[in-house]
Design brief:
Strand order of the largest sheet: 2-3-1-4-5
Distance between the termini: 23 Å
Structural class: alpha/beta
Bound molecules: shikimate-3-phosphate
Number of helices: 9
Length: 189
């Protein structure tokens, strides 16, 4: 696994990993890259990785889209809250959350209290380009995805901004994003 040059050495990453005593929780908009960045971050730190949406799908034996279709958003949010509480209780790991998770008060308080919350952010255009690649997001089906993404980002920013660590994730490879996350966690711990 490579991260951007001019960055932490393997030994520094190892010593940082040894200091991580609670879950690192990636929050932020759909399409920002929480799952792919999270996987790589976990690999770098030799920590387990969990994707909250995948864990919900596993628990429900249904896709996120199916849950929304059959039971509605409120039901999904309830499952999401319970799944994230379980993942957080499991200790050090990297958790990628769905874009709406940190907006929920209970989840946000829990993550702020028991985890290291990292807000991954990018501009609306980058988010829209990324979400267009997959048709698996029920909240984007009701209208123009670009408008919905812009609105959700605006509405959710005050919540995401409560994360103590905030990292810009630009388009292109994730090396620079990983470096920023590692350095920010190093300083925050
Ligand atoms: C959602 C984001 C999705 C998923 C669900 C709802 C949201 O996760 O949890 O479709 O409310 O923004 P990603 O952020 O991984 O796309």
């Amino acid at each position: 696994m490579t991260i951007a040059p001019g960055t932490l050495s393997d030994a520094q990453i190892k010593s940082l990993a040894a200091r991580i005593d609670r879950p690192i929780v990636l929050v932020g908009m759909m399409g920002v890259g929480k799952t792919s960045v999270g996987r790589k971050l976990a690999q770098l730190l030799s920590l387990p990785f969990a994707d909250a949406d995948e864990a919900i799908e596993e628990a429900a034996q249904m896709s996120v889209s199916e849950i929304f279709e059959r039971f509605g958003e409120e039901y999904f949010r309830d499952g999401e809250r319970r799944v994230i509480a379980r993942l957080v209780a499991e200790g050090p790991k990297v958790i990628a959350t769905g874009g709406g998770a940190f907006v929920q008060e209970e989840t946000r308080s829990l993550v702020l209290e028991r985890g290291i919350a990292v807000w991954l952010d990018s501009d609306v255009q980058t988010l829209v380009e990324r979400v267009k690649r997959k048709d698996n997001r029920p909240l984007l089906r009701g209208g123009d995805p670009a408008e919905i993404v812009a609105r959700l980002k605006r509405e959710r920013e005050p919540f995401y901004a409560q994360a103590p660590i905030q990292v810009l994730s630009e388009s292109g490879p994730h090396g620079e994003t990983l470096r920023r996350i590692l350095e920010a966690i190093d300083q925050w711990l």
